[in-house]
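Record type: monomer structure entry
Structure origin: computed from sequence
Chain ID: A
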Amino acid sequence: QVQLVESGGGLVQPGGSLRLSCAASGSIFSPNTMGWYRQAPGKQRELVATMPSVGLTKYADSVKGRFTISRDNAKNTVYLQMNSLNPEDTAVYYCNLVNWSQSRNYWGQGTQVTVSS
């Protein structure tokens, strides 16, 4: 089993920044992919950014140039630096980890990000 614990959400004004963190613990194997998804009210969950243990990062078009994903493999932690936030970024942000060797997919509990003046 894998546990994912997110932190860093909150309320921010348009144009502001937030940094999300997600610490993973448990049975983490390589190769794996860690990433962030989000779900706004009334909408489906969507990919924000993913970063594999080996390979290229991936971003949603809507966040390219504004968000940056990074990871610290020694700490099994993934980060999402979010800049130039706008109200359309308001959502619950979920951390995700995929253990490819086991084809297992894990989710965090989610952290609320609200962009409002």
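Annotation 1: The first strand starts at residue 2 and ends at 7.
Annotation 2: The two ends are 40 Å apart (CA to CA).
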